[in-house]
């Protein structure tokens, strides 16, 4: 990508992010630059520590990344946050769509500005606390 294309992408994304960041253009352009430079936005999925979601992540970990489809769905009827973006997942050949969690509240403006409805999902795991119990998490990767 040459410098003109790079500047164009940064300006375009920065201008789309700024209104959703209360007009803070400097912060919007800094964020746009980081996203364009990395060629993606990677962010954690919130709300995955609940028991049933942990079980879903444990199961999703056994699939290859290309078999798992992640969708970002606005939830204007959400009683806690009308601007919430739910992360829904589906496994190829699966029987349904499952609400895995949510886009972090401080990233919803950026995700909306990117205008993407699909993303890659990475399941991550590790041990937590003194019990050494395996805990699962998930990260969304949105290509730019």
Give a short summary of the structure:
The protein is α+β, with helices and mostly antiparallel strands and 144 residues long. The protein is built from 4 helices and 6 strands. A hairpin with a 4-residue loop joins β5 (118-128) and β6.
> Uncertain segments of ≥5 residues (pLDDT<50)?
none
Task: Indicate the mean pLDDT.
Answer: 86
Helix content: 25-40%
End-to-end separation: 13 Å
With helices defined by DSSP (H or I, 4 residues minimum), what is the helix count? 4
The strand line-up of the biggest sheet is: 1-6-5-2-3-4
Query: Radius of gyration, Cα only, in angstroms?
Result: 17 Å
Helix/strand/pairing category: alpha+beta
Gross geometry? globular
Number of strands: 6
How would you characterize this protein structure?
The chain has 144 residues and is α+β, with helices and mostly antiparallel strands. It contains four helices and six strands; from the N terminus they run H-H-E-H-E-E-E-H-E-E. The chain has helices at residues 3-17, 25-38, 51-60, 108-114, and strands at residues 40-44, 68-74, 85-91, 98-102, 118-128, 133-143. The protein has a six-stranded antiparallel β-sheet. Strand 5 (118-128) and strand 6 form a beta hairpin. The radius of gyration is 17 Å and the shape is globular. The model has no long low-confidence stretch (mean pLDDT 86).
